[in-house]
Amino acid sequence: MQREIISTEQAPTAIGTYSQAVKVGNTVYLSGQIPLVPATMKLVEGDMRAQITRVFDNLTAVATAAGGTLADISKLNIFLTDLSHFSLVNEIMAEYFSTPYPARAAVGVASLPKGARVEMDAIMTL
């Protein structure tokens, strides 16, 4: 199967050796998004709510560029430097997703790139 690289200026550019997303057939693999503001490539200012919201906005931009929406996400992985924010992630996620929800994992990690406190990646089926 042919691979298609997905790229959009509406989401942060890659800060390493990876693509924003790769589409293979009708499956899109969205790379991890941290709360970078695409225009400045700096972490969003504000609290944890602002960081989580920015990550969902970044994922939305990449999903749209690939021809889908967040409703097409089959699997969502969430990485948090502090698992006490788990309920806040659930609250904000309910603003972006409706049932049926994607499969999901939430993992506590020691640190994330650029000092981010949250990162998410996803698999989307078109």
Describe this structure in words.
With 126 residues, the chain is α+β, with helices and mostly antiparallel strands. It has one domain (3-125): 2-Layer Sandwich (60s Ribosomal Protein L30, Chain: A), CATH 3.30.1330.40. Helices cover 23% and strands 33% of the residues. The strands form 2 sheets. Strands 1-2-3-8-6-7 form a 6-stranded mixed beta sheet, covered by helices on one side. It has a two-stranded antiparallel ribbon with strand order 4-5. The model has no long low-confidence stretch (mean pLDDT 98).
Number of strands: 8
Strand content: 25-35%
Order of helices and strands: EEEEEHEHEE
| CATH homolog superfamily | RutC-like
Report the radius of gyration as a whole number of Å.
14 Å
In helices, the fraction of residues equals 10-25%
Largest sheet: 6 strands, mixed
Give a brief outline of the structure.
By secondary structure, this protein is of the alpha+beta class. 23% of the residues lie in helices and 33% in strands.
List its salient traits.
60s Ribosomal Protein L30, Chain: A; 126 residues; 23% helix; alpha+beta; two-stranded antiparallel sheet; 8 strands
Structural topology:
Blueprint: E1 3-6, E2 21-24, E3 27-33, E4 36-37, E5 42-43, H1 48-65, E6 73-80, H2 86-96, E7 103-108, E8 118-125
Parallel strand pairs: 6-7
Antiparallel strand pairs: 1-2, 2-3, 3-8, 4-5, 6-8
